[in-house]
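Help: why these numbers?

___
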Amino acid sequence: MMIQIKRYALVCAAAVFSLLPISVQAVDWNPLPDSGQTTCYDTAGNILEPCPEIGQPLYGQDGQYSGLAMFFTDNGNGTVTDSNTGLVWQQNTADTDYNGSVNSSDQLPWQDALDYCANLFFAGHNNWHLPEIFELRSLVESDRYNPAIDRVFSCNSSIYWSATSLAAANTANAWGQDFDTGRSVAALKSDSLYVRCIRTGL
């Protein structure tokens, strides 16, 4: 009986999820690019040199994974292309008040950040949007901090908005990406955070 109830719940959840509006970008995320992490650590946070081998304690860390390397191309027009996915990013933090400099006055609440990117005409294109958290997370270089991002980008060591709400039942919070530490964090949508817009390279 318990198994039947669980199956019923899963079917209902799948049916509800299938009705939700989903925006899928036409990019290739397979395989995922490497995070850039090359260092291994023990449980106290000390660096392990060399990284543990198969069968040793603490084997399987990100620093041991060597995958598709991050590869960004400076387009020379204020944009950067992720050569692995084709996604195009604003190279600099968004100057949302258009005064020629970026500081705390350019931070926006979540809805204003969505609107800014949706209405942006930049580098000859108007199909910009606020990135989802997995897109924003793809910029993080885990072996860097302050800021934790490739140096081709101009970036504040602070939190940037994503378009991803924390959960369907939680309409007050959304995910942000902290480019100081490289961590994804939850923030109130009424908070003001920095913005970097994205578009597909189509």
Notes: The two ends are 51 Å apart (CA to CA). The chain has two domains: 30-69, 75-202. Residues 30-69 form one domain.
